[in-house]
Amino acid sequence: MENSVSMKEILLTFRRRLWLILCIPIVFGAVSIVYTHFYTAPAYSATTQVLVNQVKATKSYLYNTNAIQTNAQLVNTYSGLVNNPTILNRVITNLNLQMTPEEMSGMLTVQPTQNNQLLTLTIQSESPYRSISIVNGVAKALKAQVKTIMGEDNINILSPASSNSGLTVIPAPLEKNLVIAVLVGFIVSIGLAFLFDYLDDSIKSEHELVNLGIPVLGVISHVSRHERRRIKTVSKSKERLNVQTVSNAHVISNKGGLR
């Protein structure tokens, strides 16, 4: 019984604060659309591919199955080396960037191709030229670092990023921001509805009086606006009828007096 009463109270709270629960998500969604459309800049993704080979390999050896597997293992090794602070600091110094290696690592995506010798580097930022320069700088720094540390010159930059190739425009996530804003709006509106209901000290039902130990002498049912209007119209009609009846009685009385 308590569960049904609690559920009923929850539904009554939703009904009383329905305007609040509906309006706040709409406002949040509208603000999200305006902010995303006018104040959120699109992102630019630049991609560079590098090819990893063994050094001093003959042409026939390049197509050998064991060589390809070895090169694939080197790709995995180099993919872990790309995010090394030494390489990223070299890129920051060469390009004179105002950022930390951790910030650059957050912009960088390294994707080794499975069972392949290709390593794909991707940088995403708010500037197309910044993305292109950083991703090409990372590829060059990786090539130089491998040559310095391992003494191997087995990295070839296949397709450097440029404004004509390897550059992708990523529009602002309007739909994603809208969904998030509406969900947050619903959560906020429901929380405010229960908060306002909790702070409301007025008596809403006879059950609250019973819980407070106050006897209920009578209950006046709720009268809708339409019903109040109808009652008011009927009352005015009765008043006019009573006035007309009194007036007629007065006329009849005067006639009797004349006789």
Mean pLDDT: 79
Query: Which runs of at least 5 residues are low in confidence (pLDDT < 50)?
Result: 1-5, 57-62
What is the rounded Rg? 39 Å
SS-based class: alpha+beta
Query: Helix-strand pattern, N to C?
Result: HHEHHHHEEHEEHHH
Tally the beta strands.
5
Terminal-residue CA separation? 76 Å
In percent, how helical is the residue content?
Answer: 55-70%
* Beta-strand fraction estimate: 5-15%
Instruction: Characterize the main sheet.
Output: 5 strands, antiparallel
Write up this protein.
With 259 residues, this protein is of the alpha+beta class. The chain has 10 helices and 5 strands. The protein has helices at residues 2-16, 18-39, 59-62, 65-82, 85-95, 101-107, 128-149, 174-199, 206-211, 225-258, and strands spanning 43-52, 108-112, 118-125, 155-159, 167-170. Strands 1, 2, 3, 4 and 5 form a 5-stranded antiparallel beta sheet that branches. A hairpin with a 5-residue loop joins strand 2 (108-112) and strand 3 (118-125). It starts with a helix and ends with a helix.
